[in-house]
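Follow-up to my post from last week.
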Amino acid sequence: MNEITPQLKKIFEKAQGVRLSDSEKKSMRASLQAHMQAEALRPKSSIPSPWVMGRFVVFIHKPVAVVLIAFLVLSGTTAYAAEGALPGDALYTVKVDVVEEVRAALTVTDKEKMRWDAQRAERRLEEAATLAAAGRLTDEVEIEIEERFEKFAEKVEVRAQKAENSGNARAAAIVLAEFEGTLRGHAQVLAHADQDSSAVSMQMSLTAESDVAANSDAASTVEESAPDIIMMNLDMAIPTEEPPQAPLPTRMMAVGEEKREAKEAKKQDEDSRISKKVKQRLEKLERAREQAERKAQNKNGREKRAAEDRIEDAEEALERVEKAFQKKPQRIDVKVRIDDARERIEDARKSGATGSSSEAFIEAQAAVSSINESSVLLKVNGETIIDERTKDDHVELEVETKSEDGRSSIKIKSNIFNQKDD
Amino acid sequence: MESPQRSPESKEKAFLEAFEQHSDALFRHCYFKTSNRELAKDVVQEAFCRTWSYIGEGRKVENMRAFLYRVAGNVIIDEMRKKKATSLDALEEAGFMPADDTSPNGEQFASGQEAVRMLQQVEEPYRTALALRFVEGFSPKEIAGMLEESENVISVRIHRGVKKLREVFDGKDP
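User reply:
Got it. Predicted complex:
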């Protein structure tokens, strides 16, 4: 390097004068410090570039979230953030595809699996009701809910069929009866949502029909009975504000049969997609339940025990729903069903005492079904109730936050009086 | 330079010290290479940021100065790829921008510009080798480490660079 002449050395020395100005350096330092602070907040990854790192944040956090949710589920707390999510909410898929799946994975027996699937189907209907009440049930959301409902409802039936084939028809019959009652309740809830104010009276005649069926001693034989009974009931109940214990007429005359049929036909057209699906499903469920009950009958020996257990289930469920009903004694539709359940339990006991256990079992089944229906109807108006379902199921606390309770029933009453004035 | 026992605060402090210490030389290096003051500034900034991210992942940097030059070299390559459309002429033009008058070192900057102009007439890779050796004072071994070349290659580049610079000098100022 002895070629470096003093002139060249001077060039290099002068070149050293090239530097950042103070202000340039200051602003560069500030930017660097900002970068360093941002970097401190980022989780570590193996990719050095900060831009690439940003993308990895998502993948790092996802498993954490899943573990957290799994932990919450396992700890027995079902009241957490995602649970309240509705279709369209950010957390909704977490609720359905993560939280509910985790719970599904925790079920062991056929009965548990069926019950959970039934509950998942029911949850979709509850979501639909909540959204409808808030005026947020768009066509797209409805289709999504309907698909999910169908998926789980179908699962229940497939599982029931499997259980029957593997000699567990009793469990299948039990869950199908419960599910049937629940769906019946939701069919009415949805019908409420579907109808506009002018159609309120039609809904009530529809309700009346099932009320009579429920109230009758031999429900299966009463196919077309008095449609106007509920109006009579309400006429009596509302102006005088009779306590729920007031005796209700069990049979009223059938009037306006043709008129009712016409209304019914018109009603079909007004049904929402979900409403139709629920009704179709109910028909299928009824057949499946009857079939399971028949198959269960053949299992002699354990019949007596099964009937006794079922009566106990029904009694426990009845007690719970009566408690919830006390807060809303104005709900005649619920009262009719509760009375029906009570009668059926009594009948079941009588049948059991006279040795016909299979009849006792079927009566108790019908009682549970009615109770489930009542439970759904009570929940509709946003009342907070503890729904424990059956003793061996998960204890579940369901809190619904909806508009002021009792509103829709008041609306119905007034509409009925209006209609009567016509 | 980095030790895992250090607290995050002292790590930050050490890195900011490194910035004070090396930013001018790094800027010079980038300026000689790109002939564009603004681009050189961006490259320096980016090189420090990338280096900090690297340290933030818990990795060690043995020789901070050499590491910074290497990262800056990579950034320049990235920039060149991004700005492929920009012609060399345009870059050179930008390189001969007047001195920043707002700079307190404006005079110094202006006096250095004549030297820079001469240096810039030495083509790459000799220019960089020359600047690192004589402007920044690195040993050929250090330069070899920074540029990921053998020491022998660097020595040859320095030798040829000096020769070329002398030609430029003699041609301009006989």
